[in-house]
Design brief:
About 30% of the residues lie in helices and about 25% in strands. By secondary structure, it is an alpha/beta fold. It is globular, with a radius of gyration of 20 Å.
Amino acid sequence: EVLEIRDYPIPEVRDDEVMIKVNAAGINFSDILARKGLYTDAPKTPCVVGYEVAGEVTQTGSSVSEFKEGDRVIALTRFGGYATRVVVSQAQVFHTPDRLSDIQAAALPVNYLTAWQLCEMSGLKAGHTLLIHNAGGAMGLASISLASRFGAKVIGTASSPKHEKLKELGVDFCIDYTRQNWPEALFDYTGGKGVDIIFDPLGGSSWKQSYKALRPSGRLGMFGVSQVVQSGLPGKLKYFSLLKVMPWFNPVQLINQNKGVFGVNIGRLWGEPKLVVSWAGQILKGVEEGWITPHVDAAFQFDEAEEAHRYIENRRNFGKVVLTP
């Protein structure tokens, strides 16, 4: 209910910037945390959230040469994406592949860049077994498409209504976390061995369980704390409930158990533009080749943003949810 539409002046375009008429804006869990006052990187309120958009160029700065008026583009916005017009540096803009609609394109940047970074840092390759938590969400589907391309075996946690679709997309084994003890189900499936790699956006006790579910030489990739919204404590005190059950890793423990842990936050990679551009280029190539196709579950209008956020928080979505002006 704190989300509302407001009018602001159209921003000015500087020399190296591009103005985009937004046709679709992706929703990410960081937006939901920001709305709840739980995302430290968010601007002070009132603010415009949104990390990614797709649309068309309406104006370019004097030093911009890669884009022109009328070009269909995708952009990373670092908040500010839930708007009819955005202005961003040309370094954050990419041409939209012809085979994608704007709604599909808005589902591409954050989730697929995060999934790509997770794959890079984990060293995921053919023969590995990967466990993806929240496999039916937008990040889960992005990770599945990359893991399948790399030849990994995929296990996913998701509610049972999503299992059939997940198996169609390449998941080898599904665990219903709402009804099953997922570590027990995982160890039963793997003969007690555990898995090589885990992608975990949940945080708190889930990270502790995920670490235990790694086999020797396994790696845990952490990239979110969605469990924080389930706490009954007010405001940022919600994080205290996670701290109580969060694992505390130390070098000796990691050495003796032959395991690795790492974290990913694509929103903190703004100082590494070459890295991001390189990954984006490989993702866009995957789109052109046809093995990456973002799956959009639902599109809501801007004045339905409250409903869209609630839709995601209630885990009703299978894939991405976007907003359209």
